[in-house]
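Standup, Tuesday
Yesterday: got the pipeline producing structure tokens again.
Today: sanity-check two examples.
Blockers: none.

Example 1:
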Amino acid sequence: MSILHIATTALIAGIALVLAGVWAFQNYGVYRFSRSDAPPPADGVRSVQFRSSDGQMIGARLAMPEPGKPVIMSFYGNGADVDSSFARLRPLRDRGFGIAMMEYRGSGATAGKSSEMNFARDALAFYDQLDDLMGPPANRRVLHGFSLGAGVGSRLAAARPFSAVVFEASPYRTCLYYQDAFKGFPFCQVMWAERYDIVDHVQAISAPKLFVHGALDEALPVARARQLFQEAPGPKEYLEIPEGHHADLAKFELAEAMAAFITRSVPPSS
């Protein structure tokens, strides 16, 4: 056997090993959701289900808006859950905004496989059925995505109309997070799924956009948040919270900033 043949065989085996590792990571290493039965809903919150386009039943939580106020469709981050994430938006509910939040497959009481494509399918179904579930028309809907939820939300907002969009602690591309975590391994070159290429989806979003990021975010460097904002089309606004890290922006002026931005962007209905 020639040296060239041995080298070629070793190269092919190495590529196959890398691809197998990436496949395993995409299928088993990305998501950190826990499974549990749904707790009783909080006061003023309805726990409902809707059917996704492939027949899967998906859980969701709804809180109705006060008259004239829009509804915020919110998508939460990796490792979180729908009920604590819903409770995190209580300051916006107290200001009269409605909240609609679906549960991810493989999270909480909702069965199924967690994946970017499944979340995208479910988000579209949730949007399209929200008239029946809750009632607000498209011109009374605001999108909010936190971290991984910004990836889910950006794909939805590129496909469906919203009056305003808020990205909180948003990645530029999620594959870059893994690239940083694994000391430069080229995930963005080898991943073919679970990439959440937010910077690509945001190009198709014409609604007013607010980007909020913590200057001390250790998970998603603020430099990439600034780059995402720079590359996003207008109209757009950017808020950098000096004391903010990744998951603590609700402790600062997040609710106030979101409420003011939404009020500017979505005129009250009669």
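Example 2:
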Amino acid sequence: MKNISLILITILSFNFSFSQEINGNIIINSESVNQTNNSVFINLENSISNFINNSVWSNENYSELEKINLNILFSIISYSNNNYVVNIEFQASRPVLNSSYSTPVFTFLEKNFQFEHIEFEPIIYKDNQFESKLSSLLAFYTNIIIGLDHNSYILNSGNNFYNVSKNILNYTNQNNIPGWNSSYNGGKLNKFWLIESLTSKDSTEFSDFVYNYHVNGLDLMYEDILSAKKNIASSISTLKPLKRRNPNSILVKIIFDSKSDEINDIFSGGSFFDVSSVVSDLNYLSPFFSNKWNSIR
């Protein structure tokens, strides 16, 4: 897939079989629904799992080591006559070079998503037209996640996947599908502004961060911990112009919703340099997590 494939194969001397991009784990939580027959939810879980894991989302080969780990939790709010209202939490991570560790790259909550799905009916997606609410949503987020994964290895290499997601959003809006416009969910943290931000010129610092944090930071840990931590601190600092231009940036929120625990662990585990500057940057960029940042020593 990427140049990193050759590095991993050379260093670790594993034999890989090539397969799809996603290693998806789908969970349907129906505890809030009074439904005596839970088989419908089990079958929905299986249908979504087959769709995510067995679809080919790009023309590139991913080895088992390169696969994106994706957890999707569907919390069912209501269900009646094949109609669902759910909250969906996406959590994606990618492997770190020369490590068994998987680093989070995307955490996002889709609230009050409504769709219809008939039991045992296959989930169909076509990239040039609208098929269903469920397939559109899953394809939308999956392409964003693959784009982020690409960008975490090669700068700006995820843009084509972001554009696919933007096309999905355009098709749904053309079909007047609710939940995809700019005002959904209060007009801030929604699909429209997520993909609008990722595909705008305003995302330069975000893309630079995703690349440098991983390639020059986490992937360097096995070789030079001090340089890796300094590079991570530098990558965090480069987000400040984005924050100044857009104090409520959805991209900044995504970073720290995904990375706050990891960043806290990185700099709490013996940084070997003065962390006061990075703590100051973190408090400016994401004051919501100030308790974590201020515990860094």
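Quick observation on example 2: The chain has two domains: 3-167, 208-293. Residues 128 and 167 are 8 Å apart (CA to CA).
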